[in-house]
Design goal:
heterodimer; A: 14 helices; B: MetI-like fold; 2 strands; 72% helix; globular
Chain lengths: 283, 293
């Protein structure tokens, strides 16, 4: 505290509270919409205070057929698909990045830098700019409508490899020397020393990657054609389209709520790791 | 880069990099080179014959008003999103930095929109601005604004900008707050002793000192607006009305998957790749020469 300015302090709190309200408003409206019956949700203006239909909508959304009059998988099934995709992407990315960073930092072998640059270029090409040819590759490999097709094309990651490379470079050389004197081979060293030492980094990265995986949209949209494989995030779009004929906003907004709860929970519950992961992967 | 002490050459390192390299080759390098190759081809509507046409797809794009319009719109969109979300985040972080107690609570309450998927952000905003039901058109009617983003192009653009900026505030806030909290207190105290008030201190000391963060965030926000906002556009406007919100990423998807113009879509992909690479290089050059306080 540099100086005591009570009025300015109050203004600061007021501005911040105003900011929090602006940021939270869309979620509040979503929550309110998910607690009313469908009839109420067709009358303008829509309510701003919660109603009493939360559990009914919750049950109908999660276990019922979702929107009436549309063909779609039950929402619990979509949640499982999303969870599978998010977990496969995050574990896959972490595993292959750990291995390749270990090889690049701790081994001297021909084409080492060549491999490094090959991995580096993936950083530059988000899936959105090369969707059509990537889609063709996945189709040729017969991976459409599978968890493999949903996750594997997204798990090559230069950012994670870079991050682990940085982490490994900060580990003192004496670690390796003493491990070798004690007779540990490369894999033993990797498993018993490197992995435990980079535990928090792995956790921080996991938080970021889980959100990344859960929120994938364009990719699942392209490669899942069977309703059984739809993810919760992409189902929102189909519901919005259906809403033009029969607006059941209570169900749509309940689905949206269910779709955002897992990643939001991860961010809020693991805030410290989230902040660490965000600053480490981007800087 | 390489450890001074390292393991001897063997087959092992190749096995270790193999998964990453194979996935990179199959799902990145091969599709990207296919995109480059296809961008030199023109395929007839039935996919029977293809013709190698060198740069015709690109010269066509260079003269295509729809494409150039989409380019301009993407830049306009990115600038709006970056300015809106960064200035909001800067103001909030500036006040949060002043506060002695409770800054972490505010941080918790402000960062979670980061976790909301773009398409969901789009769904929330399209619901709030639904012309017949939404709460905002209802309020706007009292001030005489007739809101219908299904018909009015600039209103549609405003809506996608709001949704995209809303989602990005969290990220910008986090980085601004971290940057401000890393400024040495003694510096700000010295300014206060010299008689600089809070506003003066903010503009003359804090803002210039966080300028590296501002630059970093500009690049990140541009990349976000260019590539990560597909879900918002797809959910809110589908590029309409009358292409008013068709940004480049949406056009690649639309021309390729809906319009089935493979060559044209591939040429657009190649242009986007060049743009991404340029942005990444800018970002990395900046990271290399990190500004020290």
């Amino acid at each position: 505290m540099i100086e005591n300015r009570p009025i300015l302090n109050m203004v600061s709190h007021a501005v911040l509270i105003f900011g929090v309200i602006i940021v939270a408003l869309p979620i509040w409206i979503t929550f309110v919409a998910s607690t009313h019956d469908p009839v109420r949700m067709t009358q303008a203006p829509i309510p701003m205070l919660p109603g009493g239909y939360f559990w009914e909508n919750f049950k109908q959304t999660l276990f019922g057929g979702g929107l009436s009059g549309t063909e779609s998988a039950p929402v619990w099934r979509m949640l499982i698909n999303s969870l599978m995709m998010a977990l496969m992407i995050s574990f896959g990315k972490i595993a292959i990045s750990l291995l390749s960073a270990f090889a690049i930092v701790y081994f001297k072998f021909p084409f080492r830098m060549g491999f490094f640059w090959l991995i580096f270029i993936t950083l530059m090409l988000p899936v959105e700019v090369r969707i059509l040819p990537t889609f063709e590759v996945v189709a040729d490999l017969g991976m459409l409508n599978s968890y493999w097709g949903l996750s594997i094309p997204l798990i090559a990651s230069a950012t994670a490899t870079f991050m682990f490379r940085q982490v490994f470079l900060t580990i003192p050389d004496e670690m390796l020397e003493s491990a070798r004197i004690d007779g540990a081979g490369p894999l033993r060293f990797f498993w018993d020393i490197l992995i435990p030492l980079s535990r928090t980094n792995i956790a921080a990265l996991f938080v970021i990657l889980f959100i990344y995986g859960w929120n994938q949209y364009l990719w699942p949209l392209l490669i899942t054609t069977e309703t059984d494989m739809t993810t919760i995030v992409m189902s929102i779009k189909q519901m919005l389209e259906a809403a033009e004929q029969s607006p059941q906003w209570n169900i749509i907004m309940m689905t949206a709520l269910l779709a955002m709860i897992p990643p939001v929970f991860v961010v809020v519950a693991m805030q410290r790791l989230f902040v660490q992961g965000l600053t480490e992967t981007d800087k | 880069m390489l450890k001074r002490v390292h393991f001897p050459t063997s087959l092992l390192p190749y096995l270790l990099v193999a998964p990453q390299v194979i996935i990179t080759l199959v799902f990145f390098v091969w599709p990207a080179s296919q995109a480059v190759y296809q961008s030199f081809l023109i395929e007839d509507a039935f996919g029977i014959s293809t013709e190698f046409v060198w740069f015709e797809n690109f010269t066509y794009l260079a003269g295509d008003e729809q494409y150039l319009g989409s380019f301009g719109r993407t830049i306009f969109f990115s600038v709006c999103v970056a300015v809106l979300s960064m200035s909001a985040a800067l103001v909030l972080a500036g006040f949060a930095d002043r506060i002695v107690r409770g800054a972490t609570t505010y941080r918790t309450l402000l960062i979670w929109p980061y976790a909301v998927a773009p398409v969901l952000a789009g769904a929330l905003w399209v619901f709030m601005f639904n012309p017949t039901l939404g709460i905002f058109p209802y309020i706007l009617e009292f001030v005489g604004v007739d809101w219908n983003h299904y018909l009015n192009g600039s209103q549609a653009m405003a809506l996608v900008v709001f949704a995209a900026a809303w989602k990005q505030i969290a990220y910008n806030f986090l980085f601004y707050l971290a940057a401000m909290q890393s400024i040495p207190r003694s510096l700000i105290e010295a300014a206060a002793i010299d008689g600089a008030g809070p506003i003066r201190r903010f503009w003359d000391h804090i803002f210039p000192l966080v300028s590296p963060t501002t630059f970093f965030l500009l690049v990140i926000n541009a990349v976000y607006a260019f590539f990560d906002t597909f879900g918002i556009i797809h959910a809110v406007t589908q590029g309409g009305p009358a292409n008013a919100t068709t940004i480049l990423v949406y056009k690649v998807y639309n021309d390729g998957f809906v319009g089935l113009d493979l060559g044209g879509s591939a040429a657009q992909s190649v242009i986007l790749m060049v743009l991404v690479i340029a942005m990444t290089v800018v970002q990395f050059r900046y990271v290399e020469r990190k500004v020290e306080y």
